[in-house]
Fold this sequence. Notes:
Layout: E1 4-5, H1 7-14, E2 19-23, H2 27-32, E3 33-34, E4 39-40, E5 44-46, E6 52-54, H3 58-66, E7 74-78, H4 83-94, E8 99-102, H5 105-111, E9 117-118
Parallel strand pairs: 1-8, 2-4, 2-7, 7-8
Antiparallel strand pairs: 3-9, 5-6
Amino acid sequence: MSFQCPPNDAQQLLSSPGHVYLDVRTSSEFEAYHVPGSFNIPCFETGGGYGLEPVEEFVENVRETFGDPDMAPTFIVGCKIGQRSLAGMGRLRDVGYNAVNLDGGIDTWAAMGLPIEYVEAEGGNADDLFL
C-alpha cells in the first residue's frame, strides 16, 4: 500500500467527509500561503542553530486538535516539497492515525493549478514565494 498521494487525488479526498489537509510546515510558511481549509501543526520549526528541528510535541498537538486516532479524520499531510510531511506522516501512523503524504508537497499542488490561499505581505509578491 502506498502512502504517497498525488495532488489531484488529495484534492478529491479533501472534498469528501473524513479527510483533512494537515500542513506541517512552519507557522510562518503557513501564514504566507496554504491549501484552503487546511490546518497547521508544525512537525519541524526553526531552531536556535541552523535549519529546522523536530517539534517534540507534534503528535500531542495533533491529538489536542483532532482527538485520539480512532476518532480523527484521515490526514493528507503536506509541506513544501514532501520531505517534512513524510516524516510527520510516519510519526502519526506510528501511533495509529490514518495519514498519507502529499506527493511533491504544496509546490507540486500549486504547480498543478490547485487552489492556494495567499496572504499578501505589504510590498510583497505572491510569485516570490516559489523562488
